[in-house]
Design a protein that fits this description.
Helix content: 25-40%
Number of helices: 29
Shape: elongated
Number of strands: 31
Distance between the termini: 57 Å
Structural class: alpha+beta
């Protein structure tokens, strides 16, 4: 009880006793203490109490006979407590006032059917959150202005696009509103637990944007601010070239040295306001103003950013260091002056490209084009004029209806959100991850884990039962001490009883003619006779005497007289009768069959549904009741065991020529049935040994049944009907033009592929790395987690038509980086983009060409491309290169169409897909024209509009090779120190690249290339995550094996049961004594009452075998 209380206290204080991310994965050495040790202790405890209970019941007649004046036969010689049903003994003992038996049997019942099954529920598993202090170090370093200028690329703007539009996970220690100074544990952790979090004080960085309404001065047609700004838009707030759009937005930054901004405030605001910017949002009205321009509903603001840092108590989730929250614990303060070049940063916001030309891993200095996303958001928004991508980022973060942005607060929040996201993403590249050893502070580590917990309800039940058992034990101990005891030896075998009455002629005379009477007749004859034990203190011997003669000693029952003159009909215990054996056999076969059927049902249905959501009830059904059944079946075998223990000596005597050691002196009644097995096997009583083993295996069965059932979370399919969303007829004509006012080429697939390959963002709905699947949805609009159906797949693959290594140099190519040394070049283009003749175009439009070259450059080539650069106005000098190695590959895509079984979530994200063998079909019927026409429309989308340059670094100069490098996780294709890639390497890389991007193109342009389907259904499955009941394989094998043994032994018990020759069962003292009272053998044991058990057994053996 103390241990249970301590375990409960420890469990409640620490939220558990054993902790692991998955308790089921722990080794046996760690789970033994809670899975099996309680069962073993309960079994051992029940063994001990079986012994105590047996002795209390077996010796109660002798305690009654030891009382002054003795006891009546019904309270002594005729008692048979050890053979009564366990649960009935306490009631019988209480009725007769046999309190030691009452308390012993009560304790036994409590242990047997209370403590043993209840302990199965004292431990359970649940998910808990643990929290502990942890020393933390914080980063205090950041890159310098010079490092920012030479080392940071526009990848941060591309990342902002992916975060805002594609829901890409932000980098470590960053949210959309702030970025944290990195921190981590002072000492490395051995492992990161599931759902682990770290909380510590650190610095956060962000920006606030404060705005005021710009006042329109109608006289000067300009917008003014309270701080002295006055800006004239000249009516250009909505594109004057088309009436197809209704909305437009403008941002005017303060200045741009490179002159790339469409609008700027320099000269329109006082010099001290060099961080100010001006924004408008306009809606076209169906009228013109006084100047003849289109009338507009315009909201205009003057805004100014404030960059700050703030001490916060932040919580992040390792290993990705995802920020969960940050609670301010200090005021906002200015950032260090040398941390961020705000002027360059704000110029980048105005010009939407890097302030400095920096060559790095990402090949483009321009910010990503968002026109395709903006058109999908609102076709009536003029996303092309002016080209201001910070505005576009604001729309991406705060996607509202266009009319909402006319609200001043919404417009301010939109630009603040854009500024913040761009700022914090830029700062995440500036802040270093190196932890400062001098910044140690106390943080907190918290994680969710599974734990073994003490279940209070079961603990209280077990403690209550143990308390009752302890009380019964104390009372039993007290009664055992104060009761008179005259018995000088253990009357555990036939020889002991013969010795006890050998010197008592009156008892022998009374019982000498009762050897053939029934139990009822014997009881009727002796019930009024009083017997007692007397003891000789000098010799230490004791004997059974008659304390009071019978009232009518010469009167004999009628049935006894009849038996003397007729045939003797033996009795058979109820447990050995055919009806009982058939019932027991049927029960065991039923259990074995039930387990097999249950196992088969679990295997077929992937588990059994939970009967209830109540954890206590489930634990009761899954653990308590199976073990209770296991403990219930044990008494059946215990009774069979005890009957065989008393009948076996008589069975041996019936067979004749039995040794004393196997009949007269063998002790089967003083030990619990489970411990008789060794004596039985030594005496070659095989059937008795088998029954003892079955009683012993009942404890193993109880443990196995307790752990037979367990719960697990699985996916369960339910048959349903799905609706196809589109007709499988692809038309790519709309891929090139998406806006009624401006034509542009679809390019968002590069952004999706980049985010997927660099940040692990999920592929678009209905696409995986190789295939696109025709979309469908549940006919019942189900929001279940998983969906399964067999849609048609479309795949873009390619065939390599020609490849080779050539000498020569591509012409008209610029240089990048240091001018001399080993250089590399790579390019890819679609043949159909050139001005070929019609015959050439019809052949070449479905091909694309890729090339990789290596050379030595000996000229002083300057930075730049062969065309004029607006920022440096430098031109490419002539170059002298030699030792050129080139690999050129021409590829022709091939479209594959077939059937597949695909599993997706309720957003259409592909989880698994299995193409069906032999399901590939002709592709042309699934296209509006044919596959060649569709490929001619798709192939130009694979060409990235950028500069292909020679370079002496391992950075790509085009997006295609950049993505291929990320996909193969190697820069060997663009490394000038290595030879050009081999054909097989190129073929594999291009196949993977083309298949992936082709699937992305289809997945992101479904509405453009597919027509909606009408009443098209297909069969499939809705898959739900459910917690179900399963069956442990080892415990099933153990349970079935034991039940099979039970069936075999039950049959043997019936076949080899003792003969039906005894008129009554030898279950009482009187019954056993009556069998030998008239025998000459009892005369030989006169004077042996003072011997020890060993001496008497040796004496009997000598008498039986001769000297």
């Amino acid at each position: 009880m103390v241990i249970l209380y301590l375990l409960l206290t420890l469990s409640q204080r620490q939220q558990g006793i054993i902790f692991a991310s998955d308790i089921n994965d722990l080794p046996l050495s760690q789970v033994f203490g809670y899975l099996y040790l309680p069962n073993i202790l309960a079994v051992i405890y029940s063994f001990i109490w079986s012994w105590i209970d047996l002795d209390a019941k077996r010796l109660e007649p002798y305690y009654q006979l030891s009382k002054d004046g003795g006891a009546s036969a019904k309270d002594s010689l005729l008692l048979h407590y050890p053979f009564d049903f366990v649960a009935a003994v306490p009631l019988k003992a209480m009725k007769r006032g046999h309190w030691p038996v009452f308390f012993a049997s009560t304790a036994m019942v409590l242990v047997f059917w209370g403590v043993t099954p209840s302990q199965a529920g004292i431990f359970g598993t649940e998910s808990v959150t643990r929290t502990s202090p942890m020393p933390i170090l914080v980063s205090t370093s950041y890159t310098t202005f010079e490092q920012q200028q030479s080392g940071l690329t526009s990848i941060y703007a591309q990342s902002v696009y992916n975060i805002a539009w594609l829901n890409e996970t932000p980098p470590a220690f960053m949210t959309r509103d702030y970025v944290l100074a990195p921190f981590g544990p002072k000492m490395p952790l051995s492992s990161v637990e599931h759902s682990e979090t770290w909380t510590a004080p650190t610095q956060s960085y962000s920006v606030d944007v404060e705005c005021e309404v710009a006042v329109l001065n109608l006289t000067d047609n300009c917008y003014t601010s309270s701080k002295g700004c006055s800006y004239d838009l000249n009516g250009q707030s909505v594109s004057p070239v088309t009436n197809a759009t209704d909305y437009a937005g403008i941002l005017a930054g303060y200045s741009t040295d490179a002159g790339n901004a469409n609008f700027y405030l320099k000269g329109s605001c006082p010099p001290g306001l060099n961080q100010s910017f001006f924004v408008t949002w306009s809606k076209r009205l169906n009228a013109t103003d006084i100047n003849g321009y289109v009338a507009l509903n315009t909201t205009a603001l003057y805004c100014e950013p404030t960059y700050y840092q703030q001490q916060v108590n932040a919580t992040v989730a390792p290993p990705q260091m995802t920020v969960l929250n940050a609670v301010p614990i200090g005021p906002k303060t200015s950032m260090p002056a040398d941390m961020l070049n705000t002027g360059s940063f704000e110029e980048e916001l105005s010009s939407t490209q890097n302030r400095f030309e920096t060559r790095g891993d990402y090949p483009d200095s321009r910010w990503p084009d968002q026109s395709q996303r903006l058109f999908d958001w609102s076709p009536k928004f003029d996303q092309f004029w002016p080209d201001q991508r910070i505005r576009d980022f604001g729309i991406a973060v705060h996607r509202r209806s266009p009319d909402d942005y006319l609200n001043q607060s919404v417009l301010q929040e939109t630009y603040q959100a854009a500024y913040r996201l761009l700022f914090v993403r830029h700062m995440s590249n500036i802040l270093k991850a190196d932890l400062d050893p001098g910044s140690m502070r106390l943080g907190e580590r918290s994680y969710t884990t599974q734990s073994v917990v003490a279940v209070p309800a079961f603990i209280y039940v077990v403690e209550g039962l143990l308390g009752a058992v302890i009380v019964s034990t104390l009372v039993l101990l007290y009664l055992s001490v104060i009761r008179p005891r005259k018995l000088s030896f253990n009357p555990a075998n036939i020889a002991s009883l013969m010795s006890l009455v050998a010197d008592s002629s009156p008892i022998l005379a009374i019982l000498s003619d009762k050897d053939r009477v029934s139990e009822q007749a014997l009881h009727q004859t002796l019930r009024d006779t009083t017997f007692r034990l007397s003891r000789d203190d000098q010799s230490g011997s004791c004997r059974l005497e008659v304390a009071q003669e019978m009232i009518h000693p010469t009167t004999r029952p009628k049935d006894t007289m009849e038996q003397e003159h007729g045939p003797v009909r033996g009795v058979r215990p109820l447990e050995h009768r055919m009806q009982t054996d058939l019932m027991l056999l049927t029960l065991q076969v039923g259990i074995l069959t039930t387990l097999v059927v249950l196992k088969a049902k679990i295997a077929r249905s992937n588990g059994i549904s939970l009967p209830t959501s109540n954890q206590f009830v489930r634990q009761l059904l899954e653990n308590y009741l199976p073990m209770a059944f296991g403990t219930f079946i044990e008494p059946v075998w215990v009774v069979l065991n005890r009957l065989m223990c008393v009948l076996q000596p008589f069975e041996d005597l019936r067979r004749g020529k039995s040794t004393a050691a196997r009949s007269m002196t063998i002790d089967y009644t003083s030990l619990p049935p489970q411990l008789v097995i060794w004596k039985a096997l030594r005496a070659r009583h095989i059937l008795l040994g088998a029954i003892c083993a079955m009683a012993l295996l009942a404890n193993v069965l109880a443990v196995a049944l307790q752990r037979l059932l367990y719960e697990n979370l699985v996916s369960i399919p339910y048959s349903t009907t799905f609706v196809s969303l589109y007709t499988p007829k692809l038309d790519g004509r709309s891929l090139g033009v998406a806006s009624p006012s401006h034509a542009y080429v679809v390019s968002d697939h590069f952004n999706v592929a980049l985010s997927n390959l660099t940040a692990g963002t999920a592929m678009p709905p209905w696409a995986d790395d190789e295939l696109f699947y025709m979309p469908f949805k549940s006919a019942s609009d189900s929001n279940d987690i998983w969906l399964l159906a067999p849609p048609r797949e479309h795949s873009g693959r390619h065939s390599i038509l020609s490849a080779g290594i050539a000498e020569g140099a591509p012409g008209g190519l610029g240089f990048s980086g240091p001018p001399k040394g080993r250089v590399a070049f790579e390019t890819i283009w679609s043949s159909g983009i050139f001005n070929d003749t019609e015959p050439e175009l019809s052949v070449c439009q479905n091909y694309f060409v890729s090339g990789w070259a290596r050379a030595n450059n000996v000229s002083e080539a300057r930075w730049g491309a062969p065309t004029s650069d607006s920022r440096n106005n430098q031109f490419q000098q002539n170059a002298t290169i030699h030792d050129i190695q080139q690999t050129w590959v021409a590829c022709r895509p091939r479209i594959v169409v077939g059937l597949a079984d695909v599993t997706v979530d309720n957003t259409g994200r592909v989880i698994t897909a299995h193409p069906l063998n032999g399901s590939s079909t002709a592709a042309d019927p699934f296209f509006e024209a044919n596959t060649d026409a569709f490929l001619s429309q798709v192939n130009p989308l694979f060409v990235w509009n950028g500069n292909f340059t020679w370079h002496d670094d391992s950075f790509s100069s085009d997006i295609t090779n950049y993505l291929i490098s990320k996909q193969v996780n190697s820069s060997s294709f663009v490394d000038p120190s290595l030879p050009p890639p081999l054909f097989d390497e190129i073929a594999t890389a291009l196949r993977l690249f083309y298949s992936k991007v082709f699937a992305i193109i289809l997945g992101t342009n479904m509405d453009r290339i597919l027509e909606p389907a009408v009443n098209a259904t297909l069969p499939g499955y809705t898959i739900k995550l459910e917690t179900r009941i399963f069956m442990s394989e080892p415990m099933f094998v153990i349970s079935e094996s034991i039940m099979a043994l039970y069936i075999v032994v039950t049959i043997l018990v019936y076949v080899r049961r003792p003969w039906r020759i005894l008129p009554r069962l030898p279950t009482t003292i009187a019954s056993v004594v009556a069998y030998f009272a008239a025998s000459r053998a009892v005369v030989d044991l006169k004077g042996t009452a003072g011997m020890s058990v060993e001496e008497r057994n040796e004496f009997v053996q000598t008498v039986c075998t001769g000297p």
